[in-house]
TrEMBL record:
Keywords: Metal-binding, Zinc, Zinc-finger. InterPro entries: Cwf19-like, Cwf19-like_C_dom-1, HIT-like_sf, Znf_CCCH, Znf_CCCH_sf. A zinc finger (C3H1-type) spans 58-86, 90-118. It holds the Pfam family zf-CCCH_DUS3L. GO terms for molecular function: zinc ion binding. The keyword Zinc applies. Transmembrane segments: none annotated. This is Zinc finger CCCH domain-containing protein 59. The keyword Transcription does not apply. Residues 58-86, 90-118 form the C3H1-type domain. Gene3D superfamilies: HIT-like, Zinc finger, CCCH-type.
Length: 239
């Protein structure tokens, strides 16, 4: 086969998608790839105007809750929902996710978030008050919050600065006790470190009491993803 036949271009072929237009440059400089040097035949691969700046690869119009609530999504460009930075800013200003996503909220007046778009100054000024109102609303319905009208005050044994001790309402064993944070918190791990000092005092006192009864105790806490008010279970062990 001759050299002409070898170099002949076969029919029905397309350009190599990574081919760069040749340009004259000094031999002592590294070859660069400016954006205007990309062949028009394969520019579809780099067209910035076609890229989605606000969402993942999905073509839907629904927002990604993970991105809006946390600012990132582990699925990245493979996510089927929108990654909208403006929606993220509105969420950070206390606007309801359902209102941002659907334009309405089924919870209505019972919702703890805002149902109107917020300017930057308005959201910053009212973010703290909105958080306090939400916490107050939860306290009114929580059985373990001391400020709640539903708290079983006759079961309370002792009240400290960060924790209080109470008898269990429906004990599984005799003399079952609960050590409960005064602050409405989903788990004790989210409380400040200084609260552990008082918790340790409660635990030592309970151990001493049960030893006078010839018993030992175990302390454990159930931590749920959607936990409400933390409580440490104190259960006796008989010998």
């Amino acid at each position: 086969m001759s050299s002409a036949e070898i170099s002949m271009k076969p029919p029905n072929t397309t350009l190599f998608p990574y081919k760069i237009i040749e340009e004259t440059a000094p031999t002592n400089q590294a070859t660069k790839r400016p954006s205007d040097s990309i062949s028009d035949t394969q520019y579809w691969r780099y067209d910035v105007s076609q890229k989605r700046q606000k969402h993942g690869a999905g073509d839907g119009d629904k927002l990604c809750f993970k991105f809006v609530s946390s600012g990132s999504c582990p699925r990245g460009n493979k996510c089927n929902f929108l990654h909208d930075t403006e929606a993220r800013e509105q969420y950070m200003r206390g606007v309801c996710f359902d209102f941002i996503n659907k334009g309405k909220c089924e919870r209505g007046p019972d919702c703890n978030f805002k149902h109107s778009l917020q300017d930057e100054d308005e959201g910053f000024a009212s973010r703290r008050s909105g958080s306090e109102n939400a916490k107050s609303s939860r306290s009114k319905r929580c059985w373990f919050c001391l400020s709640s009208p539903d708290v079983e005050s006759h079961l309370i044994i002792s009240i400290g600065e960060s924790y209080y001790c109470a008898l269990a309402k429906g004990p599984l064993v005799e003399d079952q006790v609960l050590v409960i944070p005064v602050e409405h918190s989903a788990n004790t791990l989210s409380l400040p470190p200084e609260c552990e000092i008082e918790l340790d005092r409660f635990q030592k006192s309970l151990k001493m009491y049960f030893r006078t009864q010839g018993k030992e105790v175990v302390f454990f806490e159930w931590i749920f993803k959607r936990g409400t008010h933390a409580n440490i279970q104190v259960k006796e062990i008989c010998f």
